[in-house]
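Please decode residue identities from the backbone states below.
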């Protein structure tokens, strides 16, 4: 009786834990806004778990200021889930969850083109409402994130510092 109870408990434990698959979604640089299947879920890094069946695709959209929007996906067929295979011996249903996600998905964001950045920096309407200090901080951030080259940074910095106070 005890053996049957323990066997049943272990089978249920394997069954229930094998259905969930988890992956860490990262971006380079981190802090990108993350959308899964069109729904905002947070910022990177983000831990995603679900109980979808084998072959299910999750659409991914990453957005970060100064970077191109990235559209991609991941599918639940990246690694074999041994627990689901073992559970399948007891009940056939776990075979629907025999595959799982890779532990980590890392996406590299591309900086927006230089023309887009110049529009952001040189937009007069935007610049009128911000102080020189704020604009210089934003410019420095673009340099630190390697969106601007040192030469572009120095050129824009000089423009800001040479402006007459109005």
């Amino acid at each position: 009786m005890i053996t049957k109870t323990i066997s049943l408990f272990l089978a249920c434990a394997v069954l229930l834990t094998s259905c969930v698959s988890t992956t860490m979604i990262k971006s380079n640089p981190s802090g990108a806004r993350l959308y899964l299947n069109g729904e905002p879920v947070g910022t990177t890094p983000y831990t995603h778990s679900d109980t979808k069946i084998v072959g299910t695709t999750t659409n991914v959209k990453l957005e970060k200021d100064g970077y191109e929007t990235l559209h991609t996906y991941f599918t639940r067929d990246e690694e074999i889930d041994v627990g689901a295979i073992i559970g399948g011996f007891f009940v056939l249903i776990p075979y629907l969850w025999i595959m799982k996600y890779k532990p980590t998905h890392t996406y590299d964001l591309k900086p927006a083109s230089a023309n887009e950045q110049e529009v952001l920096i040189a937009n007069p309407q935007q610049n009128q409402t911000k102080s020189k200090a704020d604009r210089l901080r934003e410019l420095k951030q673009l340099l630190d994130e390697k969106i601007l080259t040192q030469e572009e940074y120095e050129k824009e910095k000089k423009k800001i510092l040479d402006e007459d106070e109005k």
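Observation: The CA atoms of residues 72 and 87 lie 32 Å apart.
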